[in-house]
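Have a close read of this protein, sequence plus structure tokens, and explain what the tokens say about the fold. Thanks in advance:
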Amino acid sequence: MRIRSLGVIDDAVVELSPGFTAVTGETGAGKTMVVTSLGLLLGGRADPALVRIGAKNAVVEGRISVPPGGSAVLRAEEAGAELEDGTLLISRTVSAEGRSRAHLGGRSVPVGVLAELADELVAVHGQTDQQGLLKQSRQRQALDRYAGDAVTGPLTKYAEAYRRLRAVAVELDEITTRARERAQEADMLRYGLDEIAGVEPRPGEDVELAAEAERLGHAEALASAATVAHAALAGNPEDPEGIDAATLVAGAQRALEAVRSHDSELASLTDRIGEIGILLGDVAGELAGYADDLDADPLRLAAVEERRAALNALTRKYGADITAVLAYAEQGASRLTELDGDDERIDELTAERDALRGELGGLAQALTDARTEAAERFAAAVTAELASLAMPHARVSFEIRQTEDPEGVEVGGRAVAYGPSGVDEVELLLAPHPGAPPRPIAKGASGGELSRVMLAVEVVFAGTDPVPTYLFDEVDAGVGGKAAVEIGRRLAKLAKTAQVVVVTHLPQVAAFADRQLLVEKTNDGSVTRSGVKVLEGEDRVRELSRMLAGQEDSETARAHAEELLATARADG
């Protein structure tokens, strides 16, 4: 990681060992800023107070190695990130005004994406983070994770059945609680469909009747006009001396016919006049027929207007025209069928709900059995680890219980409450010494005991489902002497299967690290690039001596420091 303008750190580079890295330094030197930096890279809350005074923003950049083919890689690729040789570049910028920006593999991403990756890549246990173990939901998740396939299989089936049951319950609730509204809707649909069926409209009928009404309303004027036009074209029998268009055209054609043979152009014009004569005859005949057929019956006009009024009553309520009214009727009939089928649907949903509740009860019992079996093994393994962490008489156990609920599912002959993860309430209990009753760890463990319980849990997990990186911030708080040595030994054991980073003030813990980093301030109170350095050889002995006795050059402290290192190497 490279850290710039964060807290007391001006500009520093932190290189973490693949195994066990211990971060040490005097109080206030900025050790916790290393933890804070990693937290920011993994989606932690951005506090503008972290920005170094006088700086515009704080920047943390990191290169993280990710397991190939894992969900972390898939999530990063979904976000558009690019990986380089199995490593992922992450950066986080926090401005003094409180704005925060995140980049993943060269792409700008929401901070939430970093938080999603954190769940797969790093387990953080700080002075506040370890409180997560106090939540019962987290305790159940820890037990399920330890149980592995024995819980994962039935839990997957249970979750699917649970989702189906919730969907069925929602639909059933909607149908039953909205029964009155649905009945009212059905009544309105029936009324409308009956009204439309009573009129029996035909597609396009409104357009046809409008045209007929227009014609009937002006029948006399239309007939008079057709008669006058016919007389102009074909002549009026009552006026033998009158001149009509057909007679004039026929005369023109006869005049040209006599000379058409002398000029082809005139012959063409003669043919065209002949065509005009034929067309005039056709139009005159149609006009005569139109006038004879035109019906000026006022009874028919009244019938048409009455029918139009009936159709207009439908279009005012159900659509802009008859086509829209007919579409409404089709859709309404379909909806009415659906509404009329509510009783049948309620019966179907009720039967499906009862079947799913029975299925859930069986799967929940399988989950409880698997958790109970895993809880015994998990508790025994953690208890054994605590014995090695200077808590030889402590006993860890799990309480798995269910809450009765008349509306729940039946498990073991009684109805119990259920949720998306089953019916079990899981609680981790600790009896710190013989004779002490098992109590929830939130109430039965001190700060130091809780830290050791956390470490024991992670050591047990390391053999089954290891997270790539574990970060402990003062996991050794409130611990000293032999217990501190055992904590260091257990951290070293955990580091054989994962990367472990520990911020510590105890030399007994730091001595077991594969790499020890010293964080130290300069004279002006800042941590610069050279302020985080790897300790080797004599420098490491001097730092351990300081941690032991506060005196780097004390011969007694040096001897003790060398003894610690020798013990750690022998264990390794």
